Each structure stands twice: as C-alpha cells, then as structure tokens.
Amino acid sequence: MSLPRQRGLTEHAADAAIDTACRLLRLPTIRAEFSDIAAGAVKNQMTYRGFLAELLMAECDDRVRRRSERRIKAAGFPREKSLRAFDFDANPNIDPATIHTLASCEWIKKSQPLCLIDDSGTGKSHMLIALGTEAAMKGYRVRYTLATKLVNELVEAADEKQLNKTIARYGRVDLLCIDELGYMELDRRGAELLFQVLTEREEKNSVAIASNESFGGWTKTFTDPRLCTAIVDRLTFNGTIIETGSDSYRLATTRARAEEHAQAS
User: Fold this and answer.
1) Are 175 and 135 in contact (CB under 8 A)?
2) What letter would DSSP give residue 142?
3) In the 8-state DSSP scheme, what is residue 222?
4) Cα–Cα distance between 214 and 236 in angstroms, integer?
5) Rounded to whole angstroms, how far apart are CA atoms 67 and 95?
6) Angle ∠(252,258,262) on CA atoms, nearest 5
7) Any residues with CB less than 8 A from the CB of 55 and at least 6 apart, and which?
8) 180-218 pLDDT, tens per residue?
9) pLDDT tens digit string along 119-132?
10) How does pLDDT run across 83-92, given as a tens digit for each residue?
C-alpha cells in the first residue's frame, strides 16, 4: 500500500496522512503526540530537523518504556517494589551504597549470585523485587518465583517428562529471583531438582535469593548435608551476601509513619 503524495495538503489532509503513515509504520507515540509536538515546534520556532528529532526521540523513549513494562510484567513480581520506596533508616543493616551498586546490575552482567539472608520482615523480599525490577528496566530478562512454587513446577515437569524443557526455560533468563527459600522443608527429590536449576545457571546467569534462614540452618530445608553444601556453594561463589538483621523493617516503617502522622496532627 502506498500513500498519495501531494504538495500543499490542507491541515486536515496532512493529519490524516500522518495518522495513516504512523499506523503503517507502527509508530504509536508519534501518532498520538505529533500534533502537540508540532504545536510546540511552531511556538519555539524549531527547525525542521529539530522537529523531526523531537518526534523520533519521543517514539524511542516511549518504546524503551513499553519494553521495560513488558519485561517487568514477564518477570512475574507479585507486587510493585522500588528502591526509592525503601526506608534505609528503618533497617540500618542494609547499606544504601551496596544496594545502589547492585542496582547498576554489573553483578548480573558478570553472572554472579546475590543472597539476602536473615529474619522475616527485614526487607529481603522488597530488596529482591526492587533489584529485579531495576534489572528488567535495564534490559535484562528476569523471572521471580517462590522457592516452593519453583520446586512444585519442577516436580510436575519431571512427572510429565518435561523437566529438561522447564530447566532450560529457567536457565535462559538473565536473573532468576527465588523468594522464601528456607521457609519449608524440601524432600530429597525437590531439593535435587532445584539443584539442577542452580547448576544449569552456575557462572552463566545470575540467581538472587531471599531466605529467612542463615546458611547454617539450611539443613532444615535441604536435609541431605552434602546436597545442602553444594547448593550453598553455588549460591555464594563470587556472590554478594547481605544480612538484613533481625529487627523488623515492616514494624519500624509502620512506627515511623505513625510518628509522622502524630506530628502532623
């Protein structure tokens, strides 16, 4: 399909031609915003090249945003969490400098692991989701899952003769975020299947985990001592370990908000 090209188009005809061209070329942002950008160009006396640059940059910026949104959605995060929303004063055990260094995603580029360890309510899941979101925004493929959900999926895949396919799918993402590791005991089969996923990713793609158990307590989750040692080894080699402490971040945040509310009243 070709568009008629004429000199001296009326404003209405020009708008219609631009709309049709944007549809054909799949440029939704230019289609939606060209009228406002054109008005701004006239007001600011922009050159033709400047106007074209504004149009193209608007499309590029929006395309980057849409891709980030798709990657975040594909990650399967259970809720939105960001580093900006984390109150570091509520948990001084978490060093802001370390977290912002991790947010650069250099560790993912190097296929290194990350472990967030310590008691419930100390901000581990918040950090895990927030750092995973940062990775997705920077172009990395991310997948979030609960440890028990992952193991159950692996067991079902093994029963249906789809294990290799499932392990390969988890192996392809740049960052695998495993939450609530250590909350429940895993039988030997489940632990071995999880070990296969970690082995598939070892030194090739990053794994980030959050656990309410110190490594010494992981024998309650992985009851085979040798398997437990092997799993800890894969999750810590060349990795970053952050101990979030025992004081509840949730409780501290709630108290801080209550105090702010009381002072405002």
Assistant:
1) yes
2) E
3) B
4) 12
5) 30
6) 145
7) 30, 33, 34, 37
8) 997 778 888 999 999 999 998 988 999 999 998 888 888
9) 888 889 999 999 99
10) 999 988 888 8
CB count in 10 Å sphere of residue 197: 23
Name the range with the highest mean pLDDT among 1-15, 30-44, 76-90, 181-195: 76-90
Q: 238: how many CB neighbours lie within 10 A of its CB?
A: 10
Tokens 């794994």 found at = 207
Torsion of CA 142, 143, 144, 150, to 10 degrees: -150
Residues 6+ apart with CB under 8 A from 208: 113, 114, 115, 116, 128, 131, 132, 175, 176, 177, 178
Residue 177 token pair: 């975020």
Distance separating alpha carbons of residues 253 and 236, to the nearest angstrom? 30
Q: Distance from CA of residue 82 to its chain's centroid? A: 10
How far from each other are the two terminal CA atoms of the chain, in whole angstroms? 66
Nearest-5° angle of CA 72, CA 252, CA 82?
15
H/E stretch holding 143 reads: strand 142-146
Spatial distance between the Cα atoms of 215 and 221, rounded to a whole number of angstroms: 10
DSSP summary character for residue 240: E
CB count within 10 Å of CB 222 equals: 25
| Residue 23 tokens, joined | 């549809």
SS3 1: coil
Token couple for 70? 């798709």
pTM for this predicted structure:
0.78
